[in-house]
Amino acid sequence: MALIKTGQPRTADAADQASLPRDLDALIGQLGQTDTGIRRQAARQLADFQGSVPALTRQLLRETEPSVREAIFVALTLIGNSAAVESLVTCLRSNDAAIRNEAIEAMKSLPNSVAPIMAGLLSDPDPDVRIFTVNVLESLRHPDVEQWLIDVISRDRHVNVCAAAVDLLGEVGTESAIGPLEALRKRFADVPYIGFASFLALKRIREA
Amino acid sequence: MADAIADITITDDDFLKFREFFYRKTGIHFEASKRYFVDKRLIERIEITGYNNFRNYFTFMRFQPSGEEIQALTNAMTVNETYFFREEYQFKCLVQSMLGEVLKYKKRGETIRIWSIPSSSGEEPYSIALYLSEYWPEIANWDVELVSSDIDTQILNKAREGKYSQRSVQNLPPTLLKKYFKKTASGDFQICDDLRGAVEFTRVNLSDPADTRGYRKFDVIFCRNLLIYFDDLSRKQAAEVIYEALNPGGFICLGHSESMSRITSLFKVRKFRDAIVYQKPEAQ
Amino acid sequence: MNTKRILVVDDAATVRLYHRAILESAGYAVEEAVNGIEAMEKVLGAEQPFDLFLVDINMPKQDGYGFLRDLRQQPIHQVPAVMVSTESQEADREIAWAAGANMYLIKPIKPDVLLTNVHLLLGKGDAA
Q1: Looking at the DSSP assignment, which residues form a beta bridge with residue B113?
Q2: N or C terminus: fewer CB in 10 A for chain C?
Q3: What was the pLDDT predicted at B15?
Q4: Measured between alpha carbons, how far is B196 from B203 in angstroms, rounded to an integer?
């Protein structure tokens, strides 16, 4: 027994076999199978089919296996069209924290698809959705990010939505944010965290 | 021009801002003692990209859609040296802990499969081969297959050749150097044919599904200091590939500053005496 | 000298800094983690055990409840865990108790509230 070389680095297993059909309907069927590997592989393949968003979303909401859920989120991200983004937004409202957080991560990778709906989400009646939206802004590479954050700290009534925005302004804020940050401190004068966070953000902006 | 260079400075707050951002992106944390190292490279990148201060450069880098500058910055901030027995504690963990667990689920006669990616010039896979030969008594009872892959065909050729500089082998105990290497006329060290023949080198782009199809049933994977260069989505996809490539109960080792926690919740954290590694959940 | 060690787990840097500032001002030693998985790595890799955890519920990769459940299964001496959340529905408190939390606080936390509760959970006796 020893170190051996087989010359065959590749192996195959059930989910990989060429015999599994690869068209849209077949893959959607595989998405519901009991074998976790088959479901995962199907989710991965469905990233090539824009029309699979409804099926992926349905499965996501009842899927219990984390590895399959992650594959579905990756597929939705790769598809990245407005239907996919809508699904991700639905996930922001989920009671399941893991689903919400995966959705936020996915949205961070889709700046162009997500930008058109940012303003709407930042005005969502649910403060948690607004907080999650600010979290999405963290990795969003888009020129309007600072303005959106300034809008939030100028208008949002909910302290934690503002707190999330201040945190990010410390990193991306410019002189434009100084006035709004000062105003925020006054508005939430009785909340030590806001005082702390705005002070930090202001310091960073002024010293830059 | 010389005046412009002298003008760029990195303030304490700039450093903190950069550090937090970089930590979030790559998991690499710079202590205050690394200030000079970081400042120097930041200033270089600021100049190369044509900005005249940190703040403008940071905004540009942070919001650039292609993510190219983050890549370039990451490359600049990481030390890319490879050498024999780099991060040796993981090889120790392999023979002292990981393989012991692997044996629990292997049937007699089954081959143990290890994947090392990226191979780079081969120091890592050969280090593994060396460690198994020298420090794993069970090698007498089990077949071990070592596969090592890289995206760069030139470096794969270099790896197959197995010729190394003094610098590359300097961490090896002299007895091992003598036993497994021959010094060439030019002062390099040629690895012996036995070890050379023990590793299968293949060309694989971890991000290309066509390349990774069929890479399955590995018991241990070493993927060290590669994923830090990926963007968030590619990292997730790579983690999926690695997950698929492992047997249930198999292990994945990342670089010492890397953490699966930034990438995915698919793996279980396992702490052994010598290292913290990640495990694919066992079959139910 | 017996400085109590606290692990602050939250994905927001500013929140971690804020909690750190409050706790350090009272003499506690503070370490940070950005999510549940990293927190577990710190727990497993720690040379000295932590005396208390301050854990945000909403974090990527593994949320606070997931971390807490894993933590309670580890063969280590179990210590108090304070969950921190923006959510204030009763349902979440139930989940927190079920996951093994000792306390549930709503963000943003006032310094005196944090310290009072941490002091109480760590028992009579000083931070240092």
Answers
A1: B145
A2: N
A3: 92
A4: 17
Query: Which chains does C contact via 3+ CB–CB distances below 8 A?
Result: A, B
Which residues on B lie below 8 Å from A66 (Cβ)? Answer: 265-266
CA dist C65 → A14, B99, C106 (Å): 35, 32, 15
Instruction: Calculate the CA B142 to chain-centre distance.
Output: 26
**pLDDT tens digits along A11-68:** 765 555 556 778 899 999 999 999 988 999 899 999 999 999 999 999 999 999 888 9
What is the end-to-end Cα distance of chain B in Å, rounded?
Answer: 65
User: Domain check: are B97 and B55 in the same one?
Assistant: no
What residues of chain C lie within 8 A of the CB of A203, using their CB? Answer: none
Domain count, chain A: 2
In angstroms, the separation between the Cα of residue B135 and the nearest Cα of chain A is 13
- Which residue on chain B is closest to C44 by alpha carbon? B271
Of A6, A7, A172, the CB nearest to B59: A172
Q: C22, C59, C86: best mutation site toward chain A, by most A Cβ within 10 Å? A: C86
Residue span of the structural domain in which A82 resides: 22-109
Q: Using omega within 30 degrees of 0 as the cis cutoff, is the peptide bond preceding A21 cis?
A: no
C13 to chain B: nearest residue by CA? B20
pLDDT the model gives residue C128: 45
Rounded CA separation B243/B221 (Å): 10
Our CA-based measurement puts residue B170 at a distance from the nearest CA of chain A, in whole angstroms, of 24
Q: Which domain holds residue B123?
A: 88-279
Contacts of B12 (CB under 8 A, 6+ apart): none
Which CATH number goes with the domain that contains C114?
A: 3.40.50.2300
Put simply, the answer to whether C107 touches A192 (Cβ < 8 Å) is no
Which residues of chain C does A92 touch, with a Cβ-Cβ cutoff of 8 Å?
A: none
Strand B181-183 and strand B163-164: pairing?
unpaired
Say if residue C54's pLDDT is above 80. yes
pTM, entire model = 0.80
CB within 8 Å of C91: residues ≥ 6 apart = none
